Amino acid sequence: MTEVTSLMHYKTAWEDPATRQAWRRTAMFRCAALLGWLLGFPAWLLVVVMTPVWLLVLWLPVALVGIRYAQLASAAVGSLWGARRVLRVYVTGVDRRGPIEEERQHSVRHA
Fold it and tell me: Which residues contact 87 (CB under 8 A, 6 or more apart)?
């Protein structure tokens, strides 16, 4: 569940502390995934070298899937900076007020 940090309205999404925290969390996850896939390749290579030749047919699909996931992870890391640039420029579209505060403001306006 998300927690409301404040009732302030920020000019851009990047000024919101919750947005910056979510971006950092996403960046750490994506970088860790890329590192994991890149470090997994030498482990896969060691397994392939140590197995008999007839088992290489079984390991080839594993290699292809691993290479594809490494490509996807590197693309995800590359998209982080584009997302950051967008968050710094565009205004936030999220109204951080909860339903209780909205009801209060609605009743004050119509009173």
Answer: 12, 13, 14, 19, 23
